Amino acid sequence: MITGRGRRRLLVVLIAFAASLTWVQPTSAAAALTVLPNASRDFKLKIDPTADWRAYGAAIRGAEASGAVTRVTPLQVAQSAQHVGRSALCHDTGLNGTYRYDGFCWDSGDDNTSAYSSEGGWHPQGFTASHDFDGTSYHGHHLYLASWFFGTAAAGQNKFGRVTIAESTGGRVTYGHVMLVQPTGNATSGNFVPVTNVHADGMVWYGNKLFVANGGELLVFDLQYLWKMSTTSREETGIRAGVSSARWHQWALPLVARYHTGERSADPRACAGASGPICLGSLSLDRSTTPHALVSGEYRSSAAGAGGRIARWPLSDTHDMPRADNGDAVNTSSATAGYSTPVFQMQGVATDGTWYYMSGECPESWVPDPTARGAYSCIHRARPGSAPSVLTKSPSLTQNLSYSRASGRLWGLNEWTGHRVVFSIDPP
Which residues in the chain come in under a pLDDT of 70? Predict the structure, then answer.
């Protein structure tokens, strides 16, 4: 006979067991997150240290010597309150309330701007935060960064790139936008131009460095050289007659290094399919290993199906750069592991050290028409070698994911115009 106390214990166990099953919904009956055995041979971040690193450093010194740019900090940009967001989730997200979701929204202008509109605008893609910067916060402040690309309906997308730096205090969200620029010239005569042909697919803030994925290349910026412009009234970007401007932006961030996954080409975004150089889409940081690792995810359209590749890239905490195979501060870096995902349209991937979380298309058992406009995305999770399960539905067109080891929360954002949020959940 089970006593009253025993019945209560049994009830607690059954409730806990039932809760543990809420996320166990298979993505696919058979497909697994497959280990790729030749990742270190096949996946490379290649760089010419002279042309793609030292030359940028010299031009940055020249631009700063001109006196036309002034250094600021990420916190100054965030606290400028150039824009004031909304400190709560302002749109439907589809997220499972069991996982204690939270987040914030951009202001109305940034919620509705579109790179596919006739007048031109911006679309968010990458996401990172101060929990990536040093594992916890930025000098006690919680900062959140998003990357965006600019385009128009007539002229196409990927024209320019920017980064948003936001601070959330829990009750207020303030932020500013920073133009991504490429240094030109040399140490005696430095200048800069916009970074163009950029989708800003994914982003990670690691120490002073900001990594931005762009298809066939990895762009590296250094937040020590975050510049305030002389004026915001000019469309042009660069220094002219001692005055700096960055296409109406208050701030600009110069490129310090440029890696390629294949050979350098006229189209830096170019990368091949399943048998060619890996494409860099989403980015996240894994702090569970030594060394820490960048985790990149490869996007494929719904029509192309599954098989997007995931790669792990070792980092050097001495230089805050990809760890060079030959021990140099900057040189070619090989992946340490790779996987193939069964998740369709994988837009983001992050790991807590055990599970890989992947944002992408929902199975039809969760959403009847996963490719319909406004359809929820899903966050899947799996261990390497195992089939993924759906953890939860998520906002339509969920993009990059980021895992915080400090809080145990999984962060992400979405790009659907007029329905944009930055969110976090507490996965089981």
Answer: 1-30, 273-274
